[in-house]
Write a structure and sequence with these properties.
Length: 377
């Protein structure tokens, strides 16, 4: 498959064995059944390095630890009022949860080599600073440097939608190819975008702020403080506001019933009332946004993720109707539409793959091993 000779593969694998990235296990073989060198089974060495994947959501800190073989070894979810915390308090809260999780593993865990963080909001292009996020009322939260100082591991912060797109690329590369978009439908509306085989990143910030592109100028108030955003109609809180006749000039309520989405979907599927109208409006907002996006480049496969994807049947007709309207050129048709409601699993998978690839690219030199960083008290 690689076009490399057997001897070249042996040199490469021996180098990876010396660096501690691979381990070899002898395979049972009947004496005299084969000629030449005995076969060995190669696998990733779990003890080579560890990675931490953090999901930072509104009032939620979720952390997963995995070894170099990609096996999850521990996880923890902690509820904390993220929006009420100062930048330092938020940083300290994340550090505290990760430190507690690492302490429970003791010396049995490989050295922590990478921390990947997925968060709703705008992150700088270097993946170090949370510029703005509904998770916190603070801006320019320098979370990356604080975690690196605390744990001695390199850190990448990314918009959660980028992590989702990364997971999908690894999950089904043949299905989505080099160009596709993942649309996150949750409290917020986000997008991860792969173009020409690369995850799209801006010059100053790292994500496609699809949910905050304009749907209706001077329309409903969005969580970001502006009016008329797609998210102001298609986010879960916004759908609830529309369905319940809430004031569109006021911020969507954060105090929704725990099963708000299920209540709305049940009523929308049962009767043609305000709930069904709210989902149609959400679908139209999403469809208009996608139509505008596809005006800039050809239509690409779409994947809808997040809890809102469970209500796609209530939105799809208006999404397709909006895409069918011509703006410039021909009406838009979409080749593939998939849905993955469990978006947090995708965030974890995408963050882990990015972390493991980073560890691949920062392999120790020959004769060296990864060492556990000396952590400050």
């Amino acid at each position: 498959m690689t076009g490399l000779s057997a001897s070249t593969v042996t040199v490469i694998t021996n180098s990876l064995l010396e660096r501690g990235a691979l381990v070899a296990e002898a395979m049972s073989d009947f004496a005299g059944a084969r000629r030449g060198r005995p076969q060995v089974r190669l696998s990733a060495n779990p003890a080579h390095a560890a990675a931490a994947v953090i999901f930072l959501g509104l009032d939620t800190i979720e952390i997963t630890l995995a070894d170099y073989a990609g096996t999850v070894v521990a996880s923890e979810v902690e509820s904390t009022p993220t929006h009420e915390l100062s930048a330092n308090e938020l940083t300290d809260a994340v550090i505290s949860v990760l430190r507690r999780l690492l302490d429970r593993q003791g010396s049995g865990l490989a050295p922590l080599g990478r921390i990947a963080i997925g968060v709703e909001g705008i992150v700088d292009a270097d993946g170090q600073t949370l510029l703005s996020s509904p998770v916190t009322g603070r801006s320019d939260v320098r979370l990356g440097q604080a975690l690196e100082n605390a744990f001695g591991a390199s850190v990448e912060i990314a918009n959660e939608s980028n992590m989702i797109a990364e997971a999908l690329r690894w999950k089904a590369p043949d299905r989505y190819g080099t160009d596709f978009a993942s649309v996150l439908l949750s409290v917020g509306v986000g997008m991860g975008l792969y173009l020409n085989g690369k995850l799209f990143s801006g010059v100053r910030s790292s994500a496609v702020e699809f949910g905050h592109t304009c749907y209706k100028p001077d329309g409903a108030l969005c969580r970001c403080g502006r009016r008329g955003c797609i998210e102001a109609y298609a986010g879960l809180q916004a759908i609830w506001r529309t369905a319940t006749g809430g004031d569109q000039s006021k911020m969507p309520s954060q105090d929704l019933p725990e099963n708000a989405l299920e209540l709305l979907m049940a009523k929308a599927r049962g009767t043609d009332g305000p709930e069904r109208h709210a989902f149609r409006e959400a679908g139209n907002a999403i469809g208009i946004g996608l139509s505008n996006l596809f005006t800039m480049f050809d239509p690409i496969p779409l994947v809808f993720t997040g809890p809102g994807a469970a209500g796609l049947d209530l939105m799809m007709e208006s999404i397709k109707a909006a895409l069918a309207k011509t703006s410039y050129g021909l009406p838009v048709t979409v080749s593939i539409i998939d849905s993955y409601p469990d978006y947090r699993a995708l965030i974890r998978e995408g963050g882990l793959m990015r972390a493991l690839v980073f560890l691949d690219h920062t392999m120790p030199g020959l004769g060296e091993i990864r060492e556990r960083a000396a952590l400050p008290d």
